[in-house]
Amino acid sequence: MTVTIPLFRCFLLFFHVVVVFHLVSATELTFELADDDKQCFFEEIEKGEKFSLDYQVITGGNYDVDCSIVDPGAKVLYEESKKQYDHFSHTAEETGVYKVCFSNEFSTFSHKTVYFDLQTGEEPALIPEMHNRVSALTQMESSSVLIHEILKTISESQTHYRLREAIDRIRADEIHEHVMYWSVGETLILFVVSISQVVMLKSFFTDKKPLPGLSS
Amino acid sequence: MSPFSQIVFIALLSSLSLTRALYFHIGETEKKCFIEEIPDETMVIGKYRTQLWDKQTAAFLPSTPGLGMHVEVKDPDTKVVLSRQYGAEGRFTFTSHTPGEHQICLHSNSSKMALFTGGKLRVHLDIQVGEHTNNYPEIAAKDKLTELQLRVRQLLDQVEQIQKEQNYQRYREERFRMTSESTNQRVLWWSITQTVILLITGIWQMRHLKSFFEAKKLV
């Protein structure tokens, strides 16, 4: 049994696929921000589209970062300093390139790892033809859509849980290492100090050797 | 149109041009790295597109042939999983075999271009992980699924990914617990050791000085 697809439906499919790719974008990235550095990401958003930004600092210093979102008209939509995590959502008022910047310029020697999730638009339909659906959804279909939404929420909360756990885990690894270095260092200092104390004390009570050429 | 060409057509369309994605700017020799913390047996697909800055027109060229990006992927044990050169527009994919933090690094290989351009490169990047890598229109065409069947397939993929993530979480908590216990042991033993060394050093100091002063006939 072969499935044939007439030319008109072919064009419709193409059109929907292209349109669908324009409607949505979800990017989550984790990157390193060196000290005294600023990194910006740009996204093209259409007017009327809803977008949301989620970010969290995973490693580094006091776990804080500056974040700002600027719209195409150079208007600042969101600006916060030294935040560890935050969520911001907004409906785009004009079409254009929006700029999301993360800055670590206030820090002198700690570099940070930042996670962010930028979602724009609505989720696309599973297959493009579902977009021009005429009849209402059956109960089965609407239940499965509901399950899909719930599973998405579960997946997102798993991500947040993983990020919070990563913060603690990396700190625990650092403590593990530092305990070793500091213990060895302190033991060495202990030896050096106790031996030099004894040597110095002995030198106070030792007769100074008479200098040659001076009569005593 | 036969089913095969239909599949090819759909596959071509969906793997095509990154019409809209996040972009950022990098310098000529700058290396940009991203970290992906993923469970094992998870597929990751990355698509990128580069544009070169043209000093004369003061704009980014729509496409630049001859430009290349080197993509390097390292697994949690810093072993190189993927290290390949791609063109100005590329698609790379890998599957993780160990759970953990994988590092994806990109840098351009166009050191020759630095002389002629402003040295700025715009990179459009899209990284998809896990069930987001599945191409549902393609699967529907290949297995001839109805909408509902496709939706159920998607739910199965999502649940599988959630399960993998939970297994990874259990593995991470075990590692965390081992690290904490090891730290606890280290702190305990070093504290005891240092106290003992302190006592021994104190006793040695007193005995050494006492014998020194006795020899000097001050005591």
Strand content of chain A: 25-35%
* Pair of chains with the largest interface and how many residues each contributes: A-B, 63 and 67 residues
Q: How many angstroms does the end-to-end distance of chain A come to?
A: 122 Å
On the 0 to 100 scale, the average pLDDT of chain A is 84
* Beta-strand content estimate of chain B: 25-35%
Instruction: Write down the overall geometry of chain B.
Output: elongated
**Distinct helical segment count of chain B:** 3
Classify the helix fraction of chain A into a percent range.
Answer: 25-40%
Q: How much helicity do the residues of chain B have? A: 40-55%
What order do the SSEs of chain A take from the amino end to the carboxyl end, as H and E? Answer: HEEEEEEEEH
Radius of gyration of chain A: 31 Å
Description:
Chain A has 216 residues and is α+β, with helices and mostly antiparallel strands. Chain A has two helices and eight strands. With 219 residues, chain B is an alpha+beta fold. In chain B, the strands form two sheets. In chain B, strands 1, 3, 4, 7 and 9 form a five-stranded antiparallel β-sheet that branches. Chain B has a four-stranded antiparallel β-sheet with strand order 2-8-5-6, with no helix packed on it. The termini of chain B are far apart. At the A-B interface, helix 1, strand 1, strand 2 and helix 2 of A face helix 1, strand 1, strand 2, strand 9 and helix 2 of B.
